[in-house]
Amino acid sequence: MENIDQQNQKLSFKENWNVFKFIFKFLLPFKKYFILAFVFSVVTTILASVMPFVISNFMDSYLETEKATDQIIWYFAILYFVLNIINSIAFFFKWNYLQNGSIFVNQYIRKKVYAKLHTLGMRYFDQKPTGWLITRVTNDTDLFPFWQMLFNTLTSIISIVIAYTALFIIDHQIASVMLIFLPILLAGVLIYQRVSTRVYQLMLKKRSELNTKLNEYISGIRIIQQFRQETRLGKAFDQTNEEYYGYRKRVIQINGLLLSPLVNFLMSVSIIVVLIMFSDRSMHTVVAAGLIYAFISNVQIYFNPISNLMDSLSNFSNGLVSASRIKTIMEESEYAPTYKPEPEDIAPDLAVTNDKNGPIISQGKIEFRHVNFSYDGENQVLKDISFVVHPGETIAFVGHTGSGKSSIINVFMRFYEFYEGQVLIDDVDIKTYSNEELRKKIGLVLQDSFMFVASVTDNIKMMNPKISDDAAIAAAEFVHADGFIRNLEHGFDSKVIEGGAAFSAGERQLINFARTMVREPKILLLDEATANIDTETEALIQLGLSNMRQGRTTMAIAHRLSTIKDANLILVLEAGEIIERGTHDELVEMNGYYADMYRLQTLQKEV
Ligand SMILES: Nc1ncnc2c1ncn2[C@@H]1O[C@H](COP(=O)(O)OP(=O)(O)OP(=O)(O)O)[C@@H](O)[C@H]1O
């Protein structure tokens, strides 16, 4: 994880520019909001610069000359009041458009990143800690301050130009002196940016680490408690938390030291310079007090945006760091299938029809041709796997734990990309099928399935509105899950609590069967449950399974050999290689590894 974060810490100017262009594209669909906010912002800036002139005019033309009648006082009071009201209204609209625009862009980015994650293969998720991913989708997509900063930069430049024009109109000589402060301020801005960005990035890295640790601790809480790891992990968590706090404190210190004090100091110096220059001028000529007031007001308007800009400058660099991480995720393609089979790879002898997404699976014939596979590119997990399963037949994989049984399923489901060998369905390369078609036609039944917080029916339908409640109930009946469901207090409408904790492993398995069958898959992949299931539920499961297998091509991982005696082909795996193949009777006759396993299991059963 450290490497992942470090990658983004030192970006060259060109890389930053690319990141900026990338993230800016997300803003375009919402540009209307930002343009309107900009228009209202210009209105408020012009009004803020003009209002001191109203006061200065009143002071110089009426107060000093003692000509201020009631009528004139009212006139100026109302004018000032109206300008203030207009200013407030313009400010409200500017604020509103800017906030809404930023919220919409963030939401849009989050939606896109979330959708992208769904297209990435399992290998990606193996390598990225969940907490890291959560930080990316939640914190990194929260670019609110970044958009504000961009907007502030633009409006600040306009403010500086307008305020400077006002200064120039009042007194171009003194206004010219004000220009000296600009490079000094810019130098301050650059120094601040350098110092703050580094510390800010370290702080962000710690926050990401904190999230990762928290996620690990919560997901592994059972093991942690069982092995009494609370104190050790608590200490590790405290340490990261302490480091995070340390960086946070440094950020606050840097901001406190460099931000407003520097700008305020320079503003005070400039006001003193202005006063000295006006006093000097008053030696030779009359200087109107209102003019000095208008000048000083505009000096403040001239400095304020710079102060704001510095304030949010760190947001800019942080936003770019976050944006670069989003860019990395959005441009991730390594795990997405890129392989396009050569025409000669495909030798269809089954009639295959196509729809708009590509070929569709109609028969369910499966073939593996010399497939090699590795998760990490180093350790070969599957070696030269070849077999054929004809439509409606069952193939079973047996072997010790870690022999590669689940990996065959992983490759077949395209959870992981493989690069050597070929897998075909209905004689068509699996890589030509759309993922949608594969997910639709292949029903995967894992040992333990995830249950959502929803009703039993919705868990069977998996919230798919196209599936009717009746179909869900029919599927439950088909796999014999209806008996126990109807015995629940609210039957099919009973609420499932998180993870399905209120159901036994066998009951969850039965719901899972129904969930698979309601989609009417052509191919079934079964990972036989190893959990202890009571004999009654076990009998239901076996009944459900045999119903499910009728007329479907089935690939089953079997732990108890008694359940796959009738399979058309059994493959015995050892360290990723097929060491024996045949039907149950053939393998027993062969008197090899399978026969040993079978004898052992029969003996255990008898004992
Ligand atoms: N996501 C992964 N990343 C890296 N290696 C993996 C991954 N999943 C499995 N492996 C490794 O691949 C090898 C084969 O594992 P696989 O899960 O296919 O075995 P299996 O026969 O299904 O075992 P079991 O019966 O315990 O489920 C093992 O050495 C395992 O450590």
Q: Would you write up a description of this structure?
A:
It is a multi-pass membrane protein. It comes from Lactococcus fujiensis JCM 16395. Its main location: membrane. Pfam families: ABC_membrane, ABC_tran. This protein has helices spanning 2-7, 13-24, 31-63, 70-119, 122-127, 130-140, 144-170, 172-178, 181-219, 221-226, 230-258, 260-282, 289-330, 405-412, 435-441, 456-461, 469-478, 482-486, 505-517, 535-549, 584-590, 593-606, and strands at residues 354-355, 358-359, 366-374, 380-389, 394-399, 420-425, 428-429, 442-445, 523-527, 553-557, 569-574, 577-582. The longest helix is centred in the N-terminal third of the chain and has 50 residues, at 70-119. With 607 residues, it is an alpha/beta fold. Strand 6 and strand 7 (428-429) form a beta hairpin. Residues 1-8 and 334-349 have low confidence and may be disordered. The chain has a six-stranded mixed beta sheet with strand order 8-9-10-5-11-12, with helices on both faces. It has a four-stranded antiparallel beta sheet with strand order 4-3-6-7, covered by helices on one side. Strands 1-2 form a two-stranded antiparallel sheet. The protein folds into two domains: 21-330, ABC transporter type 1, transmembrane domain (ABC transporter transmembrane region fold, Up-down Bundle); 354-606, 3-Layer(aba) Sandwich (Rossmann fold), CATH 3.40.50.300. The protein binds adenosine-5'-triphosphate (ATP). Adenosine-5'-triphosphate is lined by residues 126, 375-376, 381, 399, 401-407.
